[in-house]
Amino acid sequence: MSGKTTGYFLRRSLWPCNLLGPLHIRRISVNDSRRCSSSEPTKQGNSVKRSQFFPAAESKHDWVGPPHRLSNLRPIIYHIPENETELEKQLRTLRQETEDWNHAFWTNQNITFNKEKDAFVLSQLKEKGLTERDEKGRKMALNSEEMAVFYKHFLDENCIRHANYNKDWYRRNFTITLLMGRVAFHSIWRTLAERRGWKKGGPTT
Fold this sequence. Notes:
The protein is mostly helical. The chain has helices at 3-14, 86-127, 144-157, 159-196, and strands at residues 25-27, 62-64, 76-77. The chain has one domain (3-110, 159-196).
């Protein structure tokens, strides 16, 4: 199994389903390689540059950009609608913060993973009396059984960190789901009030 393939399965096995709901998006496609990743998001990690691509000023929808070269995640920028209510703003802000938090985690995760993997491969080659490249200048690699030792060690070493990530991910998405329900309920109430000419006001939920 190649490093890219194994890395993909490592990341997907730790990444819960996205509960953020459907998006009306504008996609921009680019070719981008997939790599895998391990380190908790930190204050420094939160400042990781997301993307050089941004939606046009006249955009009326949520925007999904090309995959980031480090996190492998497509950045999402949520559209700010006109006459946004305070509850809608609260939901949009939390969703955007969650996207940024997720990006920071996987950026740090991937950087650490690749550094540790490269160091492991180099150490194993040295034990065999081999150099990093062969006579033709091609980069040497280990077989799948040898790399399996590293992958297992990596997962065991970062087990608690990954568990904490999953807990935070579910907590955030649960809160987002509740907010989405409240926003939908208030929207229905507002529509009914406008149609029936009720006095201005709304549910207290």
